[in-house]
Design brief:
Length: 255
């Protein structure tokens, strides 16, 4: 499965990239671009985890294509830019798009399930914009692209993480013989997508105040959404703590 290779790669990269970034910024500030850290956090680490979670094709060709393009993109991001580096850099997001989007569209029975492939497509577009900034248009475009990418990754976490956390906590509550109160939760996903997606659009045009207002609204809606999930019962199940704390952090982390 893709996650069996992409999850360890993402974890090892996270362990190595943070001290590497600190060393480079302190001793060799000209070695990497100023936005390299943010790009690699979003498209090196986060996208690898997202791809491992969403990619369900098990063929060795798919798994190794994702791994090789991921490595090529990491090497390209550390280079000085240029057309060839851009091609290598966007190879991984494009591969993720090709592997994950068709099955997601095919399996989408509800309209809210069509949000994920649209989000992935927008995330790839943000990465292409970052590479265009590195090659030709400068750091201002790169910074804007990363801000939009943060919005999109946050929305993916809200949707995918919310489904995973709700299912895990609900199963734990049922096993303890307690009645669940989290029915009808899908109705929150489309409003969240509109709010955070709208924030990404406003960030695209540098309308930070409007984007911030939408993100605050999304944070409040997320807080209302999690109230029926009975997260108090996760205190008795330490394996659920990372899921619950990570998801709750999205509320103050929106702005």
């Amino acid at each position: 499965m893709p996650f069996q290779l992409l999850f360890p790669l993402a974890s090892l990269f996270a362990v190595a990239a943070v001290p590497l970034w600190l060393v480079l910024r302190l001793r060799y500030p000209a070695a990497v671009s100023a936005t390299w850290h943010g790009h690699e956090m979003l498209f090196g680490f986060a996208l690898a985890v997202i791809a491992g979670f969403l990619a369900t094709r098990k063929t060795p060709a798919v798994v190794w294509t994702l791994a090789v393009t991921w490595l090529a993109a990491r090497l390209a991001a550390a280079s000085g830019g240029g057309a060839m580096a851009m091609i290598a850099g966007i190879s991984f997001p494009v591969a993720v798009l090709i592997v994950t989007v068709p099955p997601l569209f095919k399996a989408a029975k509800r309209r809210e399930n069509r949000i994920l492939p649209v989000l992935l497509s927008a995330l790839v577009s943000a990465d292409i914009a970052w590479w265009l900034g590195m090659a030709w248009f400068g750091p201002r475009l790169q910074t804007g692209a990363l801000l939009v990418a943060i919005d999109l990754v946050a929305l993916l976490l809200l949707l995918i993480g919310g489904r995973a956390l709700r299912a895990a906590v609900g199963g734990h509550v049922e096993r303890r013989g307690i009645a669940r109160h989290d029915r009808g939760q899908r109705r929150y996903e489309l409003p969240l997508a509109v709010m955070v997606g709208g924030a990404a659009v406003f960030d695209t045009f540098a309308l930070e105040h409007l984007a911030g207002a939408l993100c605050i609204g999304a944070a409040m809606l997320t807080l209302v959404r999690v109230m029926p999930w009975q997260l108090q019962y996760t205190l008795l199940q330490p394996s659920l703590w990372p899921l619950a704390l990570g998801y709750l952090w999205l509320v103050p982390g929106h702005r």
